[in-house]
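chain below, 372 aa
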Amino acid sequence: MSKTKLYIIAGEASGDLHASNLMQALVDQNGELEFRFWGGDKMQAIAKGGLVRHINDLAFMGFLEVLMNIRTILGNISFCKKDIEEFAPDALVLIDYPGFNLRIAEWAKSKGIKVYYYISPQVWAWKQNRVHKIKKVVDHMYVILPFEKDFYKKFDYDVDYVGHPLLDETAKYNFDTTGEFSKKHSLDERPILAVLPGSRKQEVSKKLPIMLKAVEGLTSHQIVIAGAPTLSEEFYKELNPSTKIIFGETYELLSNSHVAVVTSGTATLETALFKVPQVVCYKSSQVSYSIAKRLIKVKFISLVNLIMDAEVVKELIQKECNPVQIKAEVERLIKDKKYREKVISDYDKLEQILGGGGASKKVAQSLLKTIH
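prediction:
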């Protein structure tokens, strides 16, 4: 019997994580699979030899950055189509990364290739008209946020809500009572203030100096930067030579942190699931921000507040994302016991709203059932 061939595309670090868990769930249920993929180290660990392009070469952020790299992006799309044709997969599995993946989906559908989409593009935030295209070109859409099913229903499109994959991922980590984590990284006894500046060079360059300036001189806590595995130590040291950096262990770090300063994105939800009170920071180029402000149709930028439909965590955006305001919120999260407790209690409610775990397993089962 010939193997089932799957072509998977993830373009970012979070996509690499969720795709790798899906790949593992697929392998657990059916060993007769062959993968070819765009992704990162985690996907590579599941299927050695199947990597086509690494996420390090794919992530472009903001309107200006995309425009500046348009030739590279168009070249990647063209190469990807050729590569899919040569591989001749039984199905294409797309993980988020909409600017790229929706173009590939449209082309694949025209070639008669089955298209599965896991982790919906955030069409509810902006470009809602993309739903009409998604309906035409995606055979199965698996969503991970509770309000997305209702959103798609308004467009008469039935999608599968599978729960959030981060629930399974974060459940693997606990607070280290043995002190091994601190010993391993030569940390002292003070509680940890984690700084999560993102994973892309541009956003880290823009936000990290502001975040660190805000917590400068905070002697009650030790400051630790969550270093992205895709960026070098030299890069961080150029921005700040003295602050502790821990690479590739963000979940271990969060599970041992007391408070966090976090860039917007998936990291806000990860921090919440570890029950770490946080302040959310967002700053981009003025041009990108002005365009986004006109287009985006949501009240909040952090997933925590979006899911709860309320301001659970403080969002400091653009001009408000400055050392003075970040510092004030960090101090409140540390010193105001009632405020801390309220944030953590809201995190508990958030976890209940997200439902049970098992997202990867549910997607794998559905995919294998419907693929042939």
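The domain at 172-353 is CATH 3.40.50.2000 (Rossmann fold). DSSP finds 18 helices and 13 strands in the chain.
thats it, cya
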